[in-house]
């Protein structure tokens, strides 16, 4: 493998109720978008969501476990992309479903869906995780009779400068905004610490524009994407507009999942589970407003996660219900997607992350 050009994909899975072996490792062919399997790393129970250290030397996985969950650390082999388990630490809460690493590579932030809490874990010099430096449990509920009976953190997202973290409080229809103390690993209240979204929306994931001027939040229950103006100095989000993620006239069941901004900031993509599509919006470069481009069928059921590869040329949709990951070519001018004809079988894929090895 030429390590200067190797693009590696890591796929986190749900092991309960599936034949999954853990975290799957693939190499991307940049000419075709095809994924070639390299290895599989045993990673405990349900290593669902993944995050890669900025140094590209370590990977972290959220073990989504009832009761107290775990966050696990792995080293990345720079030649093979293979993973070696190093250690794990409790997440402090039940069912961690999302995590990330701050830009300086000092901390892992994780969200626990089961009890609506967030935690911060320090990253040691060798990439292992230390005992948590902060833990916050949310409160509140909302209108959905079964899915919003209590707090449920579905994601924690840092702005591009790693100054502020936005926790999507799915169960209480709130965005909780924290300032990250990058010295002590503490989450401190921001100038506007809580932002309400319409009742029954179920905010799930957020993504920031690379310019730091805008942020986008996708709502699972409301099937909407909300566009915000963002003040990176104070960490304040101001709602600009709300867009439906489903085509006009579609009346079937569907639930949003993931959202990503193209690396060059020109397009925003979101996934619909039920309609089984990627919705595509163009970003107005002066205001951050969105214009609907279209919908692309994902060729599988329940696209829980997707990713745009580091070159910006391909999008990969991971389908939890049909055990497949499908590759699409991405038109950089129009934002439209085209199936490449390449797909892989992976048991219950939940998250896909990609990295160019140094």
Automatic annotation (TrEMBL):
**Which Gene3D superfamilies does the annotation name?**
YVTN repeat-like/Quinoprotein amine dehydrogenase (2.130.10.10)
**Recorded GO CC terms:** cytosol
One Pfam annotation, family name?
Answer: Lactonase
An example of a GO molecular function for this protein is: 6-phosphogluconolactonase activity
PANTHER family xrefs: 6-PHOSPHOGLUCONOLACTONASE, 6-PHOSPHOGLUCONOLACTONASE-RELATED
As for family, the record states:
Belongs to the cycloisomerase 2 family.
Name of the protein described by the UniProt record: Beta-propeller fold lactonase family protein
Give the organism, scientific name: Paenibacillus silvestris
